[in-house]
Here is the input.
Amino acid sequence: MSKWGHKFLVGLIIITLLFSVSVAWPLEAAPLKEETVYVRLNNQGFVQQVYVVNSFLLGKEKEILDYGNYLEVQNLTADNVLKLENGKVRISSQEDRFYYEGRLANPQLPWRFYITYFLDGQKISPEKLAGEKGHLVIQIKIAPNNWGKREFFESYALQLNLTLKDKLCKNIEARGGSLVSAGEDKQVNFIVLPGKTAALEVSADVENFEMPAITITGLRLNLELDVEEQVDLKELRELMAGIAGLDEGVGKFRDGFFELGTGVDKLGEGIGQVAEGTSELGNGARELEVGADKLAKGIKEFNHGLSNFSEGCKQLEVGVGELYTGLEELKGGAANLQSGSGSFAGGLTELKNSGRVLQQGFTAYFDQLLAVVQLQLGVPELTRENYVQVLSEADSLLRLLQGYEQLLGGLNNYVMGVNELAGGSSGLLGGMESLNEGLTAYQKGLEEYLQGMERLSHSSGELVLGGKKLNQGASELLKGMGALKTGILESEKGIWQLVEGSEELTQGMGELADGLIDLHEGSTLLRQKTANLDQDLLKVLKDKLRAMLGLEQPLRSFAADKNGEISGVQFMMQTEGIMLPEKETKVVEVKLRLTFWQRLLRLFGFYTDFS
Here is the structure.
């Protein structure tokens, strides 16, 4: 090994031993022990030798019994020889600090190391690699050793260090590692966490290649990290505030929902009342439809009567016209009778009496007729209450007109009798004059009557026209009532659908209310459970970090389980290194008394006189 390699190893061992005991214990306590495990690996990572340097901080107890499956042991504190019997080492020392070393038989590390070398893509043995040129790839695989103590694999981290010279290695890359410049060297460092396997790789373009030993340190990462300073809890605390706000909001929403539920209940009651009113409205609409149908039928019958009345008025008007014509003829005949008849005095007297009776009858009939006309000309407005009476009076008028037709027949017969009397009477002139005057007056009244009949006929026509319009209005009313009934029925159907919807809404509101209660309980529980979420998270992170670093595992002896728990164990491992052969030099052996550190170096075969 080159001189600089020896210096590096010496420094490493010294630092390890100086800081191997880091906890102060009372002098009355049992001896405090630490173990430093030195491992020599070949360049492919296979174990060659394992030494354990045991260090004790002694109190009053100066006699020590230690255990280990050692092939040999050596005192590193004094020159006296230690006793090794069946894996037991008995130590007696007056020093406060004591060191001894033992070489293990059949050692089993917690890890297995597989180191492979490739030059220009071809696998190459480390023995042939020194002085070579090309693109070099070094692969290091780390796995648990099934024969080793698992608790160390689970609780110890590994730090690997490769040293490459800048003048021999270019374009250095370390997958998963870090590069640090140290003078003319590049330090390649890797960290493997406890309980983890690894596949590491270093590559470089090399020339006249050589490399000192790869060093591997196994230790507990007892990192005192201030997790609260390393972790940003701002967003988490905002989340906690949001959860609290959510709980308050859910509570207010629940209270508002209950108020809404009260309003929905009142709405349901109002809809029920509307439904009852709609049912009553539907019943009223049905009754109204029946009444409207009866009204339409009555108006139809009234129109039919008015049509008959109008026809009768027209016929009466025609008859009165004929009567007027007959009166004209009668008036002419009476004049003739007055000039040609004088011997008919007695008959004329009777005729006069008969004329008087006839006049009285006509007068009475005319009065009745005028009364009917006056009645018809003053027809009141037709209503549901008086239309039966109006129709009844119209029927009386028709019967009166029929009596008039009979009277008109009698009058015709009377005229014929008078004509016969005129033919046989010559003494009737005086009476006939009077008759002529009466006929003239009667003709005048008849003209007035005829005018009244014309007005009555015209009024009856307007009455018939009004009846038709009334019939049309009744038809429209009937249609409107049908539409009203349909609308009410549809409205009633919609109201009942609204009632069903209201009931479903009430039921849904109840289910939603139950859900809101559960939601509020859940949000309150969530708020309670997350009230200290930040501190709980910090504790979990600390616990997980301690578990990841293996700090929860008890620290036991690597040399032997019988030693129980001890204060510290660490592993120092290194390969042989790949070096060009050194030129042979003549060595003169001189026996010297070696110091502790020189004996320690010689133990590993690294001792050289550097003076």
Remarks:
- Residues 3-107+581-603 form one domain.
